[in-house]
Amino acid sequence: MSANSRLTIAAHALAWIGLYQRQGHEVATSEQIASSANTNPVVIRRLLGELRAAGLVESRRGVGAGWTLTRDLKKMTLLDVYDAIEPGPLFALHRASPDEGCVIGHGIQPALQDVYAGIECTVRTELSKTTLEDVLQAVLAVPR
Amino acid sequence: MSANSRLTIAAHALAWIGLYQRQGHEVATSEQIASSANTNPVVIRRLLGELRAAGLVESRRGVGAGWTLTRDLKKMTLLDVYDAIEPGPLFALHRASPDEGCVIGHGIQPALQDVYAGIECTVRTELSKTTLEDVLQAVLAVPR
DNA sequence: TCAGTCGTAACAAAGATGGTTACTTCAAAC
DNA sequence: GTTTGAAGTAACCATCTTTGTTACGACTGA
């Protein structure tokens, strides 16, 4: 597995809902999205549930239920999605606290924390540059 | 666990060896490093083994055995370490291939691949800006 | 009342990471 | 040649994350 594909699936789902709505449909079902992404509807519902908590999508229940976007894809960036579904940092510090009696053990965590913070900052900046509309247009631009 | 701490432990080990050598010692043992990082010597040997494969450190066996740097910490960046120990990409594509019959399913992977490649590129650039000497100096600068 | 879809719990499978033990191999020192 | 200390490495386990799957309750429009 190595890396995780949650950002990929979330972007897939949002682009799918956006295109579907643009074609005149009101709501998209987790079943439809799962079929396109080749995964299980529950996986989609779980992921969209997190996006809903972040205010990116809404869901309706009952007959004719499904998912809708809360705002245009132009106003949604990959950073919004990332923040909604990725809780932890890119790099972790020590699992167990290093030896405070050792010079290295004492200073290594603050030292690395600064470096890691800088990297996370640039990643976030990069993610914020791409909107889901950019993603959708790039998808549509791929030749068949 | 969430994220992984391999880069952290590797940087810790390299800084430790570097400082130890600077203090006049020839070789550092996995036992000593593990004690400072509060982990198991085998974990250190495994990690240093990968760094050795990348040419960053050397090991000697027999009595008085241990680990040495192959070059100065100034000429070693976090990117060198990252490349030595992190095989996979930051973000993964779909685990199972999406539906090629669907417009989104067909174009989503090339579209996201471009975005992800750009992000990896900036992360690598950031990592290459910090040398292990920078890390060691930052460690030594932390007040007791 | 019915039917369709979300909401969610529960569980399993798989992979990554890290910890531990145990044994082999090596090379310097004696 | 024997001893000794440390690397090399296999094996196993525990934990965590992610993903897939089944099952069933909750909701709501027709």
TrEMBL record, chains A, B:
GO cellular component terms listed in the entry, alphabetical order: cytosol
GO molecular function: DNA-binding transcription factor activity
Alphabetized Gene3D superfamilies for the sequence: Winged helix-like DNA-binding domain superfamily/Winged helix DNA-binding domain (1.10.10.10)
UniProt-listed InterPro entries: Tscrpt_reg_Rrf2, WH-like_DNA-bd_sf, WH_DNA-bd_sf
PROSITE patterns named among the record's database cross-references: HTH_RRF2_2
Source species, domain of life: Bacteria
Spans traversing the lipid bilayer: none
Protein name according to UniProt: Transcriptional regulator
Source species: Kribbella antibiotica
High-level lineage: Bacteria, Bacillati, Actinomycetota, Actinomycetes, Propionibacteriales
